Amino acid sequence: MENLxxxxxxxxxxxELKAYFLSKGExxxxxxxxxxxxxxxxxxxxxxxxxxxxxxxxxxxxxxxINAVKVDDSQFSKDGTIKNAFRLHDDKICEGVxxxxxxxxxxxxxxxxxxxxxCKFCATGKLDRLRNLNADEIYDQVFMLNEQALSNYNQRxxxxxxxxxxxxxxxxxxxxxxxxxxxxxxxxxxxxxxITVSTAGIAKLIKKLGDDQVKxxxxxxxxxANDKKRNHIMPxxxxxxxxxxxxxxxxxxxxxxxxxxxxYIIFKNFNDELSDAQELAExxxxxxxxxxxxxxxxxxxxxxxxAKREKVDAFxxxxxxxxxxxxxxxxxxxxxxxxxGQLANKLVKS
Length: 350
Ligand code: SF4
What we know:
This protein has 350 residues and is of the alpha/beta class.
């Protein structure tokens, strides 16, 4: 109970921390030391701050708490993918996945606990949105997955995708703040070009990203380039039609000159025909882009199935024939429900 009354020290900016130390008659450089412990070393206890005097540590303990995220459980897939349940300070759980490949290690992280958008093919969509993650909690997932990549695969994270639980643009401010921390030299110092935020498609917020001239990559989970089909699988499309998304994407591209990525999960007998490929190619040609065709992983009680390999090949050939860049993503971590659309599958089942 006592902790609840104390302020989370990580909510303080470097400047605020400096002001705090000065107000206590301490030297300003203490702020830099403590800030480094909190962000570069992700300390979860004031006693880890060994270059800070005992009396200052006591003062900090009396006034603040550190609401760090902890790994609650990790599951290891045969293909090397590691899915983590992260426990937050209020005992809520979110998930983050480490996907190691030969030449890179990608972290797939969450931006919300649960999700409000109810995409039909997604396990997370079956959970209610409980709350937004704050910037520190998002950053912590990245920090821990980086440690996991180093200790298990001897490599640093090379890419980060905001494709775990939640719709990142509905937690706009905290997501952008977390990216500032990840890219800052006070944090992990990663290039924003290694970070991709994936949205289900909220036109006015895509425009806002353009106005904010963000440097990271944007992916749109498209999955159907036809309003009727898209309304069926992604209710968010009812207020954000493909036409409004098109306009927002053109605007985003004009402001940032960043090539957008379209994610397209291919479902058997739903969006795997050549006519669907034609609609996709037509939609995608509005700006420079890249298309990822993703193999579907069935979730329990879901209405969709995986498309046949021949259909996927024909679909991809058609897109390629239109001179568009297309990759096929075979899913990873299926055996532990870590693949695309499966996060929270165990939570849904329980
Ligand atoms: S796909 Fe993304 S936006 Fe849609 S319900 Fe799942 S987590 Fe939410």
